Each structure stands twice: as C-alpha cells, then as structure tokens.
Amino acid sequence: MKPILLQGHERSITQIKYNREGDLLFTVAKDTVANVWYSVNGERLGTYNGHTGAVWCVDCDWDTKNVLTGSADNSCRLWDCETGKQLAMLNTSSAVRTCGFDFSGNIIMFSTDKQMGYQCFLNYFDLRDPQQIEDNQPYLTVPCAESKITSAVWGPLGEFVIAGHENGEINQFSAKSGEVLKKVKEHSKQINDIQSSVDLTMVITASKDCSSKLFDSTTLDHIKSFKTERPVNSAAISPIMDHVVMGGGQEAMEVTTTSTRIGKFEARFFHAAYEEEFGRVKGHFGPINCVAFHPDGKSYSSGGEDGYTRIHYFDPQYFDFELEA
User: Fold this and answer.
1) Between β-strands 44-48 and 34-38, what pairing exists: parallel, antiparallel or unpaired?
2) Class of residue 83 by CB neighbours under 10 A (exposed 0-12, middle 13-18, buried 19+)
3) DSSP letter string, 225-261
4) What pLDDT digit, counting tens, does each position of 13-55 carry?
5) Residue 165: strand pairing partners
6) pLDDT band at 144 (very low <50, low <70, confident <90, very high)
7) Under a CB-based contact definition with an 8 Å cutoff, are residues 284 and 308 in contact?
C-alpha cells in the first residue's frame, strides 16, 4: 500500500505522536504550527495556533482530551484537543524541549533548555490545581546543572520521568521528590530521542553516537543495542512484534553535500531480540527526525527534515514493504 503523505508544515518536523487509540496523529514542526490528522486517511482535522516559535514537542493525554505543546517561544501550552482552544499557557525563561502527560493525564512535565544564562529545569505541574497554572508555579522544579535534557518520557505509573541528556546520560527523576533515582551512561554522545514500549516496561533511546539502545524502564538495565553508521534521530518499539524502527541520517548541515542515496534517509527495521537489521524503507528527502508506531502495530509514521510526515502501512507478519521512492 502506498504511504500517505501529510503536507501540513513548511519547515522540518520535530515530533510526531499518536493518541492512545491511534485514530489521531499529532505533528509539530519548526514552523510554529501543531497539526492533528486522521491517521487512517491522512486528512487534516485541524491546527493548534498560538505559538510564535518552533514547536519542539507534543503530547496527548490518555483520553485525547488535552494536547500539550512546548516551543522555542519560551512557553508550554495546553490545548483542548477537540476545539483547538488554548486552555493554559505556562511561560518559561528558555525554550521548552520536551513535554508529556503522565499515565493519569493529571500531571504534566516539561523541560527547558540551557540557554541565555538560564540552566535546564524539569518542571512538574498538577493540572487538578488551577492555582499552579494561574501563578505559573510548578509543584516541583528540578535543576539539571550538569547537562541539559534533550528527551524525556514518563516511567510506569507516573512515578518518575526518564530523561536523556546531551552528554549521553539517562536519569530517572522522581515526580514526588525530584531526586535522581537511577543514573546510567551507555551512550557516548547526545541522546536525541527516548520512547517507551506500549506497556511502559522498556524504553528505547536514539543517540548521535550512531546507536540505539533498549533499557528496562524501572532498573535502567541495558538490554539490547542496535548500531548503524549514521546518527540516529529517533527510534520506536513495535507494540505487537519484537521489532524496532529507527530513523536518522547525517546532520542537517551536511545533507547538501551528499546525494539522497548516500544520505541513508531510510527508516530501518531491526529485530529487537537478535539486534539484526531486516528491512529498510525509503521515502524522505532528508534525515528522518522522528518515528512512531501506530498503537495497533500495523503502520508507522516518520517525520522528516523535508517537512513531510509519511504514514506507512504494512503487514507485520510478512513485512512485504512497498519500497517505493
């Protein structure tokens, strides 16, 4: 089946997210707009307008009521998913790099960049307390002095946040006390992306050191490694098979000097247990910035530096990909 091409952004895609049922796909890019699409046919449902800078991250709660976006305009915004109305705006002193709802949808976390003299902070807000939102006062703020957070996801049961850092470290930050519960350093360079498995027992990292690694969410034990020859920008775990998909390519600034063939702009499929690559899917005219599996495992999406999001359908039983350009 031909992939569905979503053309709703003028600049490169920064993150894509499915909601829990998988009927909606949220995309954000460096062009200030957050889009939501029907994943079944690629029709655009609407946009969330309000940001004035590149939007770095997006998340949706479990019942698809609210959407959270974080942007380089120094704000994290909460939207009504159905109407596109802005419900809350949390101002920060630097760009918001990652954001996420916890398991219950009641608590949000977001991290800010280390820039303009401000250090990196991880902030926790409880949406059940309107005073926190009104006063822009998180119930917990964790400073990250050593190295800034580049990607983060909630751990199981909303007890902690698993964060990947610029120096390759992974930390667990408690959502109650803010202390570092566990710390590991398996990557030698920046972690570009962290995504959790469907049951939240494992997380997969994607790093600039050309590898992607699988970890246990609670203990942070390193389970598997998947190596490529290019920096990995994003990786996702299949919800139904022992497969992972990885997207990458070289740095954006080096792209112009190489042809698309050499650029390695394919999405790569690895077997999660054997650590072997078994498939590649072409498509993007530039590095892939983010990948995500549909919750039913029968399709995946990739968002690229070229500003397009592609939804690929396949039969995971046989993996007869439509390998078209």
Assistant:
1) antiparallel
2) exposed
3) EEE-SS-EEEEEE-SSSSEEEEEE-S-GGGGGGS-TT
4) 999 999 999 999 999 999 999 999 999 999 999 999 999 999 9
5) 149
6) confident
7) yes
